[in-house]
Design a protein that fits this description.
Blueprint: H1 5-16, E1 34-40, H2 45-61, E2 65-72, H3 78-87, E3 94-97, H4 101-106, H5 114-119, H6 130-133, E4 137-138, E5 141-142, E6 145-157, H7 158-163, H8 175-189, E7 192-196, H9 208-211, H10 231-245, E8 264-270, E9 283-287, E10 298-306, H11 313-323, H12 326-332, H13 346-350, H14 358-369, E11 373-374, H15 381-392, H16 402-419
Parallel strand pairs: 1-2, 1-3, 7-8, 10-11
Antiparallel strand pairs: 3-10, 4-5, 6-8, 6-9, 6-10
Main location: other
Family: Belongs to the bacterial solute-binding protein 1 family.
InterPro entries: Bact_solute-bd_prot1, SBP
Length: 420
């Protein structure tokens, strides 16, 4: 893309907000036959069917709404496609968002939600956990509903472990033990040891699910100083490099090992990925293994917001309030760990979840969310991601200079951190 996502959404803010109400109560383009479009990145048929059923229920009580369409965009291209649509005047009315949220909020591209949600009868705004709303808030105002607060967990293919003669006790499990068992499974079966889902030697931010256990972080708390050149980060990447090139417990570049297809012993993946388990092998799930810095938890968040450029911002905000009310939030919770305290018990989650028991969900979801950190998120996410990836490419070679590569990452992204 010739410009960054931040520039694109800033253009939106400058070019369209002057004619769009910023509080979701602006003049609608039409009072009937309103067609709403929401961008999402899921292509899961069951999830889309649930969204459609909720939309149908809303339309039944709101005759002014002609249709609500969920537009599924590929996850890998989601931010690029959404920001291009925004800049081109073809933005959806509502959208999911992950690491793009900071730019969208800072540029004024999202409708404030707090007043509408607090004023919706039965919505119960006080049920939201403050610990999960921060990523989508500014100065006490909520700009996106954090519909998915999914802890990363360790999925275990117990069939592969048994085939390799390996056992494990999920309690007190460490990264060193995962690597040791993963290497044994690879030696015995030819399958992969452990994989970090969605990493694919490209999406480096997913490695925060490992390096956080070493006490490392991509940058400091206010996002102004790079943390890749720290001793803790060096230790974390030394572990990963050894797992790849010495122990062979982690599949190397160019090698595909899909846990959900039965091709790996372990996977670090969000609990919301459980829908990919098809019953073709026996499995277990556990919290992330402990690292040298001890126990920890990491969550990946996604929010739902209304684009301020929407000609139907008021109608879109009304639908969002319905989509996220307590009843519908409980339905969504079978796929996406909710932000509502009332739904965050093992029993409540298990009521709509066929993959895990209440005890498992209590352990890997409820007990993890309160103290979890999120994946690295910053303004300029696309530019930072690309520059860091370019430098980290040198890491994935047997003779890599690990401290040198990590120092080069900081040299590349430091100017962007300051600018953000």
């Amino acid at each position: 893309m010739p410009t960054t996502a931040k520039k694109l959404v800033s253009a939106l803010a400058l070019g369209t907000l002057a004619t769009t109400a910023a509080c979701g109560g602006g003049t609608e383009a039409a009072t009937e036959d309103i067609e709403l479009r929401m961008s999402v990145w899921t292509s899961n048929e069951d999830q889309l069917a649930l969204f459609d059923s909720i939309a149908d229920a809303y339309i039944a009580d709101h005759p002014e709404i002609k249709s609500i369409t969920f537009e599924s965009l590929p996850f890998e291209e989601y931010n690029t496609t959404l920001t291009t649509q925004i800049a081109g005047g073809n933005a959806p009315d509502l959208a999911w968002m992950g690491d793009l949220s900071a730019d969208l909020i800072d540029s004024g591209a999202l409708v404030p939600l707090t007043e509408t949600l607090e004023g919706t009868e039965g919505w119960d705004y006080g049920d939201l956990l403050p610990s999960v709303t921060g990523e989508f808030s500014r100065d006490g105002e909520l700009y996106a509903y954090p519909f998915s607060n999914s802890p990363f967990a360790l999925y275990v293919n117990t069939d592969l472990l048994a085939e390799a003669g390996q056992t494990l006790d999920p309690a007190g499990l460490t990264w060193d033990e995962v690597s040791e068992i993963g290497a044994a499974v690879h030696d015995a079966t030819g399958k992969g040891g452990f994989v970090v889902n969605d990493f694919n030697y490209s999406s480096w931010n997913t490695l925060a699910t490992v390096w956080t256990g070493f006490g490392a972080s991509a940058w400091n708390e206010d996002g102004t100083e790079c943390g890749f050149d720290s001793p803790e980060m060096t230790e974390a990447f030394t572990f990963l490099h050894k797992a790849i090139y010495t122990d062979e417990s982690m599949p190397g570049p160019g090698t595909t090992a899909d846990f959900f297809a039965g091709d790996a012993a372990f996977a670090v993946a969000q609990v919301s990925r459980a829908g990919n388990l098809d019953g073709s092998f026996a499995y277990d799930i556990a919290p992330l293994p402990a690292g040298p810095a001890g126990d920890y938890s990491v969550i990946g968040q996604a929010g739902m917001g209304v684009l301020a450029s929407s000609a139907n911002a008021e109608a879109a905000t009304g639908f969002l309030a319905f989509l996220t009310n307590p009843e519908n939030a409980a339905q969504l919770a079978q796929y996406f760990p909710p932000p509502r305290q009332s739904l965050l018990t093992g029993e409540a989650l298990a009521a709509n979840n066929e993959k895990f028991t209440a005890e498992q969900l209590q352990t890997v979801v409820v007990d993890q969310i309160a103290d979890a950190v999120t994946l690295p998120n910053h303004t300029n996410p696309a530019e930072i991601a690309q520059k860091a990836k370019t430098e980290l490419d040198a890491m994935w070679a047997p003779d890599a200079d690990i401290p040198g590569v990590l120092a080069s990452v900081c040299s590349a992204i430091d100017p962007l951190l300051v600018a953000g």
